[in-house]
Amino acid sequence: xxxxxxxxxxxxxxxxxxxxxxxxxxxxxxxxxxxxxxxxxxxxxxxxxxxxxxxxxxxxxxxxxxxxxxxxxxxxxxxxxxxxxxxxxxxxxxxxxxxxxxxxxxxxxxxxxxxxxxxxxxxxxxxxxxxxxxxxxxxxxxxxxxxxxxxxxxxxxxxxxxxxxxxxxxxxxxxxxxxxxxxxxxxxxxxxxxxxxxxxxxxxxxxxxxxxxxxxxxxxxxxxxxxxxxxxxxxxxxxxxxxxxxxxxxxxxxxxxxxxxxxxxxxxxxxxxxxxxxxxxxxxxxxxxxxxxxxxxxxxxxxxxxxxxxxxxxxxxxxxxxxxxxxxxxxxxxxxxxxxxxxxxxxxxxxxxxxxxxxxxxxxxxxxxxxxxxxxxxxxxxxxxxxxxxxxxxxxxxxxxxxxxxxxxxxxxxxxxxxxxxxxxxxxxxxxxxxxxxxxxxxxxxxxxxxxxxxxxxxxxxxxxxxxxxxxxxxxxxxxxxxxxxxxxxxxxxxxxxxxxxxxxxxxxxxxxxxxxxxxxxxxxx
Length: 526
Ligand code: SF4
Description:
The protein is mainly alpha-helical. 48% of the residues lie in helices and 5% in strands. A hairpin with a 2-residue loop joins strand 6 and strand 7 (184-185). Helix 6 (165-176) crosses helix 12 (312-336) and helix 15 packs across helix 19.
């Protein structure tokens, strides 16, 4: 607060700085703690109803935030900090974060409010406004959890007609000397994705499951509060076993590197019914809540490669996700906001079918992934992009509704990462900023990468007729509907050339079948 403000009242501890910590800023190394003094500063944290109800939500996602926040609160108190903590449902609780901040400012009258930049544009602006209205000085600090600052990303993006992740990634590899041999990439190739597209020819054998973390008393309290206060959320809390502390998150990383990373690269695009994790890491939620630093993850993965524990295609493929894609996506988010959220380049207007919330469908792939999501709040990247995202794109769902769904059901969702991944990459709503073409495919892709089709009543090779796979029908219908719009996109040439081999009658039959199919999907009978 301004220097002329009245001094702290007698019944309130002196607060030099009020450090506001949000639910996805759970690191004692966060910028907000630079120069913090436990004897003079107060930390404020709040569980608020407005955040739970901002979009539909999964029980496990809300419980993860609350459990991890409460553990962080306790860790700070152990270090001597005064932590003011609002539990959801507390008497007279503030309902939103701006309201909570306002109350804290009024209560403590601090010299200054310190805040690591939130990962959401609207929240950053709202908190700025609140501090200004309350007459408090706000020290808004850039989030140095990330390896590329806003200035770094803008400097890289400046003057480029298109933003290509691959070039950004190479620049980051060079800058941080990751998987490099002198000036050259390890193995003389920057990207080994060609080696990372294998499917399982038969049922995958035993793969060590990700390490489980049994809820302790603090976590159990959070689970109980979610169950009591939010009975209408999606999914189940049964089997909640996510890492909720930095120590657990580091163990989860080491467990992944030891047991699943060696085959992560080769099988990262493979799916198998009833096997949600396969060789995947399951650490993205811990990363996005900042329980763990991406530098630690990168270091452990590179170390495993240097020690000969994992092949290069696994190490490179994983590091690209963290050092390349994750940082790139964040850069795009902040560069394009505000306004990015409203984009809808394909003019998709349909509502999200109910099956996305229930899994009630005869489509075996979608049924498996949605059921898995309701049980675990988790699906890996190909299940996200090439089953759920692909179907929403082909069906023509409004990108904002798709985004809300991903925000709701995925344990690791936070806006800066989910919005560009969903609206941009998966739904092509940004018209080509994140991806250079829509990620379209027919049911044959799913047939190649999984065993879903073997247990499905539909046939992925058929586009019309009673057994036609809805993905395949809607794939051709998508190309018919957007042929003109996508004409001229070099990367769509192959798909459009195949479309042009279809006769007028075939096209009409596909469009007619697609109309019937959409009705059935709306009615829940497909
Ligand atoms: Fe999915 Fe089509 Fe395969 Fe069925 S046939 S599992 S709907 S891709």
